[in-house]
Amino acid sequence: MWKVTIDREKCSNCGACLESCPGDVYEEVNGKITAVNQDECHGCHTCEAVCPEDACFIEEE
Ligand code: SF4
Ligand code: SF4
């Protein structure tokens, strides 16, 4: 299992994580990119790699 976290202080809401995630983890909720479907994460680290603000990160649980 992977836990996906977005640091709201850093996130610019650019959408890069949502566009790049192959697991459909991210969705826009009330105008903010949110890691809604964490069960879909398979730990590829793509979102971390593409995030321009170092705002999203994943941890194994
Ligand atoms: S690690 Fe991969 S599957 Fe998990 S949220 Fe990031 S881009 Fe999506
Ligand atoms: S890629 Fe980073 S800055 Fe852009 S919406 Fe995702 S978490 Fe926020």
What does this structure look like?
With 61 residues, the chain is α+β, with helices and mostly antiparallel strands. It has one domain (2-60): Alpha-Beta Plaits (2-Layer Sandwich). The protein is built from two helices and four strands, in the order βαββαβ. Strands 1-4 form a two-stranded antiparallel sheet. It has a two-stranded antiparallel ribbon with strand order 2-3. The termini are close together. The model has no long low-confidence stretch (mean pLDDT 97). It binds iron/sulfur cluster (2 copies). One iron/sulfur cluster (SF4) binds next to helix 1.
Which terms would index this structure?
single chain; 61 residues; alpha+beta; Alpha-Beta Plaits; two-stranded antiparallel sheet; two-stranded antiparallel ribbon; binds iron/sulfur cluster
Task: Itemize the secondary structure elements and their pairings.
Layout: E1 2-6, H1 16-20, E2 26-29, E3 32-35, H2 46-50, E4 56-60
Antiparallel strand pairs: 1-4, 2-3
This protein binds iron/sulfur cluster (SF4) (2 copies).
Biggest pleated-sheet summary: 2 strands, antiparallel
Amount of helix = 10-25%
Bound molecules: iron/sulfur cluster
CATH C-level class is Alpha Beta
Summary of the model, kept short:
The chain is an alpha+beta fold and 61 residues long. The protein contains two helices and four strands.
